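User: Can you predict the 3D structure of Phage shock protein B? Sequence below.
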Amino acid sequence: MDVVPILLLVIVAPLWIIFHYITKWKQMKGITAEDEASLGDLRTAADRLEDRLRTMERIMDDEVPDWRSRHHDKF
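Assistant: Sure. Here are the predicted C-alpha cells for Phage shock protein B:
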C-alpha cells in the first residue's frame, strides 16, 4: 500500500486549497475604484432625492398645513 498518494490527497491537497482561497480573499478585501465611484454616484443621487423631499415637504407645509397629522391618522 502506497502512503504518499493518500497523504497528498488527505492532507496536502485540502491545505493547498484552503491557503489558495485565503490568499484570494485577502487580495479582494478592499473596495475597488469602480466600487468607490458607484458609491459616490449613489450618495449624490441620495442627496438630490433628500433635497427634493425637503422641498416637497416645504411646499406641502405651505399649501396644506395639517397634511402631516392627517397622514399619520390613517396609519
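The helical segments are 3-27, 33-63, 67-74. The chain has two domains: 1-30, 33-75.
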